[in-house]
Amino acid sequence: MSDLQRNKQVVVDYYQTAFGGDPQKAVDDHFGPVYVQHNPDAQDGPEAFIGFVTWLRGEYPDLKLDIKRIIAEGDLVVTHAHLDLEPNNPDNPGRALADYFRLQDGKVVEHWDVIQDVPKSAANSNGMF
């Protein structure tokens, strides 16, 4: 397996494990020696990440995260995903996420994200995903 394929696999497993309800396992399996967070609403470090995901799943126990695309180049992996906090609520179409991860030696060490609400209507028929 190439480094790019391995990095993609690490990010997918990390993301799905964390948001599937086990952020501690995601950190234990996939975080490197540091975790630098670029989202201005989040703190650095694994404890902050675990706390955020635990809080989010507590508030939205039915949340679903569906990775639509994944791209890798060098030490970066980018995912495009649909986060639906309330999948049983048709009035809330969820959010589109673009997450950028930097890996070092096959471990996640840095994260950036761009988050956009999915609109209920659009000027085109292309969809967010």
Q: What is the topology?
A:
Blueprint lengths: L2 H17 L3 H8 E7 L8 H14 L4 E10 L2 E9 L10 E10 L2 E11 L12
| Spatial extent as radius of gyration | 15 Å
Helix and strand composition category:
alpha+beta
Strand order of the largest sheet: 1-5-4-3-2
Low-pLDDT parts are: none
What would you call the shape? Answer: globular
Termini Cα gap: 28 Å
Number of domains: 1
CATH classification, class level: Alpha Beta
Number of helices: 3
Task: Outline the structure in words.
Helix 1 runs antiparallel to helix 2. The mean pLDDT is 96. This protein has a five-stranded mixed beta sheet with strand order 1-5-4-3-2. It has a single domain (3-117), classed as Nuclear Transport Factor 2, Chain: A (Roll), CATH 3.10.450.50. The protein has 129 residues and is an alpha+beta fold. It is globular and about 40 Å long. The longest helix is centred in the N-terminal third of the chain and has 17 residues, at 3-19. The chain has three helices and five strands; from the N terminus they run H-H-E-H-E-E-E-E.
Please provide a brief summary of the model.
By secondary structure, the protein is α+β, with helices and mostly antiparallel strands. Helices cover 30% and strands 36% of the residues. It has one domain: Nuclear Transport Factor 2, Chain: A, CATH 3.10.450.50.
Characteristic terms for this protein:
alpha+beta; 129 residues; five-stranded mixed sheet; single chain; 3 helices; Nuclear Transport Factor 2, Chain: A
